[in-house]
Amino acid sequence: MLHGKIAIVTGGSGDLGTAMARQLAENGAQVIIWDIVPPAADAPADFMPVDVRDRAAVDSAIDALPQVDIVCANAGIVNAQPFLELSAETWQTHLDINLTGCFHTCQSAARRMVADGRHGRIILTSSWVAQIPWPEITAYAVSKAGVNMLVKQMARELAPHGIRVNAIAPGIVAAGLAGRQLREEPQYAARVAKVIPLGAPGRPEDIASAVVYLASPQTSYMTGSILTLDGGCSLFQFDG
């Protein structure tokens, strides 16, 4: 389905990124992982050490590829802090990685796609909390709300070039950033136990399958959309 395509997955050494890279590769794409740490030895992709905050490094990595067809702007962080304790440094770091990092990656890739005349796919990782407030992650939620508007702006302006831009919005996944919170933050785990209508956190494979769908010919008429995969988290959950 994706044979002959070159795909970039930023944050590809993490649980979600690895699952995305694996499923893209299984569907025929040549995958390059960008991250600041190397992936596992069995990662189904090539690796380039790229910090998405560094625009020069991003541009250089894009220039080094023979072509760019699919970009998964997935690199991100989340550090929980109550709003009254949220430091300016933590706030800025979230914006730099989660939002500005997406901008750098997507603009650089889109410029290359336009220059090459390729009708590429750009897929960003948003979150269900981009629209639903969740305690103690103000910086993360705001950065993901910015990602949602970035998707729509890019989709509107890149459509004449044949470039489709969409996002996945995972809910609570028992891996990656949320998985760490489930292990390390008891108050987070207690909230999670009550808010998923389907009864359990998602799996990285669930999210990766949606990425492959957005990268596939099946979504050729889809752009500017946020595809939510949250087990119903964004539905208001009443007690009882």
Radius of gyration: 17 Å
Number of helices, counting only DSSP H or I runs of 4 residues or more: 7
How is the biggest beta sheet arranged? 7 strands, parallel
Question: pLDDT average, as an integer?
Answer: 94
User: Would you count the extended β strands for me?
Assistant: 7
Estimated share of beta-strand residues: 5-15%
What topology, given as strand order, has the largest sheet? 3-2-1-4-5-6-7
Distance between the termini: 45 Å
**What order do the helices and strands follow?**
EHEEHEHEHEHHHE
Shape: globular
Low-pLDDT residue intervals, each spanning 5 or more residues: none
Q: Which range best describes the helical content: under 10%, 10-25%, 25-40%, 40-55%, 55-70% or over 70%?
A: 40-55%
Overall SS class: alpha/beta
Tell me about this structure.
The protein has helices at residues 15-26, 55-63, 88-116, 138-158, 176-184, 186-195, 204-215, and strands spanning 6-10, 30-35, 46-49, 70-73, 121-125, 164-170, 226-229. With 240 residues, the protein is α/β, with parallel strands linked by helices. Strands 3-2-1-4-5-6-7 form a 7-stranded parallel β-sheet, with helices on both faces. Helix 1 (15-26) packs across helix 7, helix 2 runs parallel beside helix 3 and helix 5 (176-184) crosses helix 6 (186-195). It starts with 5 loop residues before the first strand and ends in an 11-residue tail after the last strand.
